TrEMBL record, chain A:
Belongs to the binding-protein-dependent transport system permease family. GO terms for cellular component: plasma membrane. It is found in: Cell membrane. One of its GO terms (biological process) is transmembrane transport. Its main location: membrane. Keywords: Cell membrane, Membrane, Transmembrane, Transmembrane helix, Transport. The keyword Transferase does not apply. It comes from the Bacteria. This is ABC transmembrane type-1 domain-containing protein. It comes from Devosia insulae DS-56. PANTHER family: ABC TRANSPORTER PERMEASE PROTEIN, INNER MEMBRANE ABC TRANSPORTER PERMEASE PROTEIN YCJO. Gene3D superfamilies: MetI-like (1.10.3720.10). Residues 63-274 form the ABC transmembrane type-1 domain. The chain crosses the membrane at residues 63-88, 100-120, 148-172, 206-227, 256-275.
TrEMBL record, chain B:
It is a multi-pass membrane protein. Residues 74-263 form the ABC transmembrane type-1 domain. This is sn-glycerol-3-phosphate transport system permease protein UgpE. The keyword Transmembrane helix applies. The chain crosses the membrane at residues 12-34, 74-102, 109-130, 142-163, 184-207, 240-263. Part of the ABC transporter complex UgpBAEC involved in sn-glycerol-3-phosphate (G3P) import. Probably responsible for the translocation of the substrate across the membrane. GO terms for cellular component: plasma membrane. Keywords: Cell inner membrane, Cell membrane, Membrane, Transmembrane, Transmembrane helix, Transport. Pfam families: BPD_transp_1.
Amino acid sequence: MTRWSNIRVAALFLLPAVVSVVLLRLWPAAIAVHQSLLAPRASSYSLENYLYIFTDPSFLNSVWVTLLFSFIINPLQIAAALGLAILFNNKLPMTGFWRTAVLLPVAIPQSVSAVIWAVAYRPDGLLNSLLQLVGIGPQRFVTSPEQALGSIMLVVSWIGVGYWMTMLIAGLQDIPKSLYESATIDGANGWHKFWYVTLPQLRRPLTFVLVADTVANFLVFAPVNILTGGGPQGSTDLIMNQIYTNAFVNGDQGSAAAATVVLVALVLVIVLIQFRLMGDGSER
Amino acid sequence: MDRITPRQALRMVVIAATALCFLMPLYWLTISALRPEADIFRFLNPFGPWTLIPNQLTADNIVGLWSGSFSRAIVNSIVVALVTVIAGLMVCASAAFALAVIEFPGRGVVFTTMIVSFLIPFDAIAVPLYSIMRGFNLQNSYAGLVLPGIGNGLAVFLLRQFFQGIPKELREAAMVDGMGWFRIFWSIYLPLSRPALVSAALIMFIFQWQAYLWPLLIAPSNDMKVAAVALAQFSSAYNVSFGLIFAGAAFLSLIPMLIFVFFQQYFTSSVAATGSKE
């Protein structure tokens, strides 16, 4: 068959991509699993690293902080992205420009964003002087254990929401106009149209955004590393910061690898659950 | 759109106000870069007219930035992003072409491998990847910075979807004319896929321009540091020079801004194209 004769040319086209993906993604993932099973200063496999991290209060704290962070930030960001997408989906003059403005923060290095916000959050910073305008006293933001995680969420959302908005706008533009027209004939109001036409039609792009956003928020690192370093009192110590601290500050590669495996497993489980909930898995 | 109703005007105002909230930090960043260092914090609190309007402009910060070691870091960042996008487009587009167009045994397996690769969060495997790269002596090298950005599973996926939408008849006609796979790829598929190639290029550009953890690990030396890392270290250094930090940050934001504004034309043209179809 010609299919077999195609294999050589296909291999030629695929080789660079396959080699780089296997070497630079799958192999390190395998190494992480391997390292996590090696106890420190031993050559036999064991679960010691996992037992260690699950009794380490600072790791347990970071899991808790990460879960709390996800449960709050993901619904908020997706609701915001959807609201923005609906607002910005039109052909009015200038909308294209404003859309670009909202998208822009995603392309700026996160370290830059973190530095800008660090100055905005200072006690004498821009945010406090704006709050003062409306009669609110100075807030502590990233130096307060109660406000620090919320402050990180604000930065991360400023960075990411425009990106998810853009994906959802593409989805909105794919919805056939005729659906809205027939809904109007049936006497549907704006809310009905949103609930019975827009949301169901947006299911695929929404699934994608939900999954990709969740994954991205599990991996937040630079803003935490730069703005708070995980503090105050561990209140912003997301897992990625914990892994970095374990590996490069404490030099404990074994427990960093175990924490990495736990993180990837957590991400995959949540992604699978989301696919299930959105009923997308059976569709393909 | 000849006449704008009051309702549409109101919507435009809401849109502009929302977008300005997103732009505010960047605007403030830019004016801070252009005013004397002493002024950056002087007018910050309490809020007054000079908080957002610079009363005095200077190029000192920008000049200072370029005469220091930061210029090297910016060059590094640009080289890394540029090489990644060019090499990455070639690698990902050819893989996507094989996956979309050429029928061969094992295609499903290769495709699944690509999907799995982008489900593994990159930052999460940065630490073991670092130990592999160290084994090949790739610390503090362009290769170490660029290589992880080239095999991008998401870009392969996106391009494959697009290639699949190109009518089969085109390549069948080309084969009758005696074109080989490579010619079909190069002179039919690539020219027809400009929007998808732009999106894939943007994905790869953002990956590198955003990168922080990986360059922090693989290229910490002064010569090979990328701008994002160099900038973060300005603030942790002993003598914090906010003038330089703001000038560097403004420059790092300016480049993606220019790229986005340029590609905005592609977005609007695709919107216009769908409009004409209605």
